[in-house]
C-alpha cells in the first residue's frame, strides 16, 4: 500500500494535522472579536490536512540521485540535534530568564555552534536584535513579553 516515501510522509503529516486540529479546537473563543484567536490555527491545520492528502496521491518515483540526497552526513545530524537542543533550552528558559536574555544567548550560541566566528558582529546582533524586538513588541504593539530577571 505504501510504496513511495511521499505516501509515508503524508500519513505522518495527516496524523500531525489531526492532532493539531484537536488542540486548535480547544482554544477558547472570545465574545467581542471579529476574528477569533482560533481562526489561524484552524486554517493552518486544515491546510496541512489537505496538503497531506495531495501529497499521498502524487506519483513521484524516487531516482537514485534523490535517494542519495536524502542521506544526511553524521556531522550534519549532530548539528541538527545541537540546534534542536538549543531550541528546547530556549523554550524551557524563556519564562524564567526573560525574552531579551534568552534570545540574546540563543542567537549567540546558535550562530557560534553553526560556525560563525566573527565575535563582535555576533555579540552586536545577539544584543541589538532581541532588545529592538522587545521594545517594538512592548512599546509599539503593547504586547507583553516575559521580562524574566531583567528589571524592565
From TrEMBL:
Which residues are the signal sequence here? none
Keyword check for Membrane: yes
Among InterPro entries, the record links this protein to: DUF1468
Q: Which residues cross the membrane?
A: 40-58, 79-107, 119-137
Location of the DUF1468 domain: 9-146
What is any Pfam family matched here? TctB
Keywords per UniProt: Membrane, Transmembrane, Transmembrane helix
Protein's recorded name: Tripartite tricarboxylate transporter TctB family protein
Which organism does this record belong to? Oceanobacillus luteolus
